[in-house]
Amino acid sequence: MARGKLAALRGAKFLVFGRAGMDLYADPPGERIESATRFTSALGGSAANIAAGLARLGGSASLISAVSDDAVGRFVVNQLRRYGVGVEHVRAVGGGARNSLAVVETRNEDCQSIIYRHHAADFQVNAGDVEAVDWSAFGALIVTGASFSVEPSRGAAQLAVARAAQAGLVTILDVDYRPYSWASAEESRAIMRAAAQSADVVIGNDEEFDVMAGARGLSFARELAAETADLVVYKQGARGSIALSGDVACETPVFPVAALKPTGAGDAFLAGLALALSQGRPLGDALTRATAAAAIVVTRVGCAPASPSAEELEAFIAAHVRPGA
After folding, report:
1. pTM of the prediction?
2. Is 188 helix (H, G, I), strand (E, B) or coil?
3. Residues 6+ apart with CB under 8 A from 258
4. d(CA 31, CA 37)
5. Nearest to 134, CA basis, from 52, 50, 67, 62
6. CA distance 147 to 175
7. How far apart are CA 142 and CA 274, in angstroms?
């Protein structure tokens, strides 16, 4: 991997690789799943949320994924189109594959999120899907870590990273560690370490870096920044984030908000950061915008539906004290 590629993000069209599914939220906000009598539906899945977040902020994004060849799959594709996400690389698959489904609560305390991922359709993305991509049409690939957990999605994700690098795209890894998708912690450590060492930008939380490192996650993040990646973002939840680029470290605290729920912040953060960098913004400003996008999402119902528009992001930043100011 060639270093010094972040400048290539300027004006980039993004291709996002990974999960797209349906979220069902217990309604009204605060209701427990077990006592709910109604649910609201929304686009879900980390990759779909990131792509929708990019589009909502004014960016250009397409998704590479697979959906079930049924009404739920069609719902997902229709939702992607509604957000302005390109679906030219979203394929419908049969054979009993089903879309990922999350049944979730809008609660900040003791929030229950039940994920149904058995024989998930997005795990059926294969090498043929990757080879069908015109890589010259994109400037950056965002790939989510859950895509590496099983075949054929694992091999397809690895091939996508290789093809993107060959085409000169910036590769961005969202570690997105989901233990239930992996055969073992040891397997995930080996596969995700290799993926992180192949990426230009690596974004994950402290627990995810610990998984890749076996311990001492921050040390591994610093190692990546020093040796292979142009940018590493080490997220620490309520303690904010540390961005590492070469020997530069930039700490950004969170915006204090009254959160409705904890979900969706990471996807919004990545979308906000990637788009800001593609606009040529300095790293500190890009991190502020990413942190603001995450803060907005946790104050609203849903993940993709909670993603801010560019105007909403600007208004939020103008109305709040900037982190570190």
Report:
1. 0.96
2. helix
3. 299
4. 9
5. 62
6. 10
7. 9
Domains of the chain (ranges, CATH numbers): 12-319 (3.40.1190.20)
Between 214 and 135, residue with greater pLDDT: 135
| pLDDT, tens digit, 9 for 90 and up, residues 157-215 | 999 999 999 999 999 999 999 998 999 989 999 999 999 999 999 999 999 999 999 88
Q: For residues 25-31, give the mean pLDDT.
A: 97
Instruction: Return d(Cα 319, Cα 183) in angstroms, integer.
Output: 46
Count how many Cα atoms sit within 13 Å of the Cα of residue 315 in the half-sphere of its side chain. Answer: 7
284-308: b or e for each residue (b if 16 or more CB lie within 10 Å)?
Answer: eebbbbbbbbbbbbbebbbbbbbbb
* Cβ partners under 8 Å of residue 305, min gap 6: 42, 43
Are 59 and 276 in contact by the 8 Å Cβ rule? The answer is no
